[in-house]
Design a protein that fits this description.
The chain has 15 helices and 17 strands. The protein is an alpha/beta fold. Bound molecules: zinc ion (ZN).
């Protein structure tokens, strides 16, 4: 039994209407939150953390990221979607060895933890062999992060595996499920990362969704990227085939039509918005506001660290201000100035926490600080100059904070970052390995 008491913090409380921070203590026993209240005084405490001047809130949830690309920071920062597909998936992915996947996944997961992310969906389309899959899973497990591992397709040829692909999802998914991720209760659980109707032919999409359902795991795919949305009408197609369901997650959804949003809502599908890269690569405008309007479960994602930052704080800011830009622009076009802003920082904070957990089907486990849930919790230091004076803690988190203000990160009751430093991580060595990995891969392309 291990008992941790977090004293004197301002604790984030969520309900459907509002987000508030209230002075309270949080008591954690083993992996769970067992009590939240004022002046808690349990008889036995193994560790007491003084959270005075700190915000205690649920860890952030990144619902869509390709962790294997962590060593490629900056490679795609000036690229469009097509340049990225051909350059990273076409050019670089075939050269990736299992140790490159391991290094990218471990460094990326630690980078996420350092930035206050306690749960991540690793969309892994680098399954060049079973050794690649094992390397990705080993790294996730080693990092201590809570993860859905999205078993994807090989990165051996973007031309065969994407672009109206006729190749079905590898049945090795069954081996991975059986040998490495048979349990749905652990920190790392399995999902299927499929191409879907914009990147594979109908017969393949049918097969892939049925494979995910046979394995009884969540299924994620990209949808509505730029001109692919109106070209394929993927959501409509899946609806006509009776394939939509609450186990389906869609990344981006920028250019799907209004009737397709209605279909996603009616079938309780979820959407992952990756606002920064969507704006960069020409996928279209982020759909955060639309997803909220239709009542669709919606979370944020970093997507590709090869292009943008790995911080969900950045994604929160971009999502909020992009949505405001969309709504304000609509008003200017009709000849009026906005009288008030209809999307608030609190809406985005919910999207980045409980919304993300719902998107991944993990909202009974994580995404909010509640008695009985897993102790996935972060402390944010609002005494820092960039956040002081903190008049509105919600604004502090969404618009002022970054990873350097994350003092403490706890996942399933285990402390992984304390007083601003990652614990138990040999970072120098790992960063050196990532350098070597990137240099070798980029050299092989020349
Ligand atoms: Zn993606």
């Amino acid at each position: 039994m291990k008992t941790i008491l977090i004293k004197n913090g301002k604790v984030l409380r969520l309900n459907d209407q509002e987000v508030t921070f209230q002075e309270a203590d949080v008591l954690v026993k083993n992996d769970k939150i067992v009590q939240i209240g004022k002046h808690l005084a349990p008889p036995v405490v193994d560790l007491e953390i003084d959270a005075s001047g700190m915000l205690a809130m649920p860890g952030l949830v990144d619902t869509h990221r390709h962790l294997w690309e962590t060593a490629l920071k900056g490679v795609a920062s000036n690229w469009t979607l097509m340049q990225y597909l051909n350059g990273v998936l076409g050019g670089i992915a075939p050269d990736y060895q299992p140790e490159d996947v391991y290094t990218g996944n471990l460094l990326g997961a630690l980078e996420a933890i350092n930035a206050g992310i306690t749960t991540i969906f690793d969309w892994s389309h680098i399954m060049n062999s079973n050794a690649h899959a094992k390397a990705a899973i080993d790294a996730l497990k080693e990092s201590g992060i809570r993860a859905r591992f999205g078993y994807g397709t090989p990165g051996t040829s973007v031309w065969e595996w994407f672009y109206e692909s006729r190749l079905k999802h590898p049945l090795d998914a069954k081996t991975v499920r059986k040998n490495y991720l048979s349990s749905d209760d652990g920190l790392v659980t399995m999902a299927l990362a499929i191409r879907g109707p914009e990147y594979s032919i109908n017969e393949v999409t049918d097969h892939d969704i049925r494979l995910g359902r046979e394995l009884n795991i969540p299924i994620s795919m990209h949808i509505g990227g730029g001109t692919f949305g109106p070209k394929y009408h993927g959501v409509r197609l899946l609806a006509e085939k009776g394939l939509l369901g609450p186990d389906l997650n869609f990344a981006h959804a920028n250019t799907i039509s209004e009737d397709e949003f209605e279909l996603l809502a009616a079938h309780q599908c979820s959407i992952s918005v990756a606002p920064e890269v969507e704006l960069q690569m020409g996928l279209g405008l982020p759909v955060t506001g639309k997803a909220l309007k239709y009542g669709i479960a919606c979370g944020l994602g970093v997507d590709v660290v090869s292009a943008t930052s790995g911080s969900l704080f950045d994604q929160m800011k971009v999502a909020l201000q992009a949505e405001r830009a969309i709504q304000n622009e609509r008003l200017y076009q009709s000849g009026s100035m906005p009288e008030k802003l209809t999307i608030h920082d609190s809406d985005i904070l919910k999207v980045a926490t409980i919304g993300g957990a719902k998107t991944l089907g993990l909202d009974r486990t994580t995404g909010s600080l509640e008695v009985g849930k897993q102790a996935d919790l972060i402390l944010i230091d609002i005494k820092n100059i960039s956040l002081s004076p903190s008049i509105n803690p919600v604004s502090s988190v969404v618009l002022y904070a970054n990873e350097n203000h994350v003092d403490t990160v706890m996942i399933a009751g285990k402390i992984l970052k304390r007083q601003g430093k990652l614990l138990d991580a040999n970072l120098e060595n790992l960063i050196e390995r990532a350098h070597r990995s990137m240099e070798r891969i980029l050299k092989e392309r020349r």
